[in-house]
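Risk register update: the risk that structure generation would not scale has been downgraded. Supporting records follow, first protein first.
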Amino acid sequence: MKKGVMRPGHVQIRVLDMDEAVKHYTDLLGMIETDRDDQGRVYLKAWTEVDKFSVVLVEADEPGCDFMGFKVVDEAALNQLEKDLVDYGVGVEQIPAEELKDCGRRVRFTVPSGHAFELYADKKYTGKWGVSSVNPEAWPRGLQGMKAVRFDHALFYGPELAAVYDIFVNVLGFYLAEQVLDPEGTRVAQFLTVSMKEHDVAFIHHEDKGKFHHASFFLDTWEAVLRSADLISMTDTSIDIGPTRHGLTHGQTIYFFDPSGNRNEVFCGGDYHYPDHKPITWKAEDLGKAIFYHDRVLNERFLTVLT
């Protein structure tokens, strides 16, 4: 079933004030600024990521997410996936190489939930930050804040989850790892993976199209998540909820907001998924425990604050 998509590659996030945003994502989250372009966009990566960037910040009048990109194995896979999307009835847009600095051509498409995604095969390989590729040390000195390990996934809110599922699973080769079903058996949340991770992208039903819930960054340990909570308080950063544990995915998590109101997550742990694993199902009436395993209730911000 594999179609050539490897992993999440990048996300472009709209911010209201670039200086404040850069300070948040570098000083607090601990990402590394790698470049800027003539459009004023700022490129960031986490220290273990081998490509030049995984987060692109762009100044705009309202917060949110412009698109999420996935890296594919090679140009042949990109060509085939583009053809498969078109054959499936999905419109595609060609984004030329270097529109994002040091990134090859991208194939962009919008799914029925109103979210834009793109596929690409090439991006400048820079290696892990601060450690050698020969006899590397355990971690680099000089990391800031939460010391984000990688950009892990994004969660989007929107309608038509079944149609979104069809594109990601039938065309792009993702698997359904976990789901939430309402009493009628309709899927109201879906966690999709193209790797061994518990999810690489997720969707929750919402009547409005194109809503961005959060971008998530992986940390090594529960202690690192707790330390992140301390840093959130030390910097008077707006917090959503946590530290706590998810029922879905079983990851240990904390949610907070960047200065523009975009939600971030840092987490550790979580389940793994192989192609022969059947999806885990949660009942919608137990959604509180599914999302926040300890409190077993949903806080209003988590459901209603979207960008």
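Supporting record for the second protein:
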Amino acid sequence: MDPFSSEGELVNIHTSFIQGQYASVLSDYTTSDFSESNRLPVKVLQYRAQCELGQYDQVINSISDSDAKQTPDLAAAKAFAKYLKTGSDDAAAEAEKLSESQADNLTVQLLCGTVLSRAGKQDAALSLLSKHQGSLDAVALIVQIHLQQNRTDLALQQAKSARSFAQDALLVNLAESWIGMRRGGEEYQKAFYVFEELAQAPSSQSATNLVAQAVSELHLGRTEEAEAAMSRALELEPENKIGLANKLVLDAVVGRDTSEVRGKLEKVDKEAEILADMMAKREAFQEACKKYSPRFS
């Protein structure tokens, strides 16, 4: 059973988390406000929120080795934070070992599944996540992995299956919107409506949702609206890695100098995928240039 279902007491903190309101997850909720059985899921959500805010050391230092050994959820949270901080093979191996011994644990499925996917072991991640029991969080992660694999068809199957039992759940709406952004055409507008509603409502506004709105606006050719949403996102979270990466793209599209934003992104996340991609393309271009000699007449 999904512990974050709409019938439970975790619905509000979970909704804040999936809306990208990570500061709210940390400041507006305390574990003592919840029943004993739900205090661990709340703590895990707060650890995940800290990781989204880049507070990896705080998470690692908050979970002792003895607590991690006794509680798989805490072990998964610590392994997750270690991997996000370092991206090391050792951290990935730690998550993989945990996924093999605690495959039925939902937190292990979600956090170790994320690590496995980011470490390039997407098949292993999908195998682990397939063990979930009606978890929309797991479905959403499976959808993201399939989209990374360019398997939009499989992502769509997952979303349709979740829709059959989850009705209008926010995670299902988001998953369908991610798929729509990949499919393009009329789907851009549908995705935009979902992202705009979340981004503009005071109760759900976050940098994450504003970036999503900006990206959908950009795909629809509305660069001014995209810039407005992106600016607001970076006002809320100046060091938001996804925001800075997409701001870099937006500036390139409108013909603006990208050096300032690129510098900010390098400070926040020097291993950002877009930076690595730009470097690889620059090197490929330079190699191609070596094959030709300039000719003057």
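The radius of gyration is 20 Å. On this basis the risk owner (M.S.) recommends closing the item.
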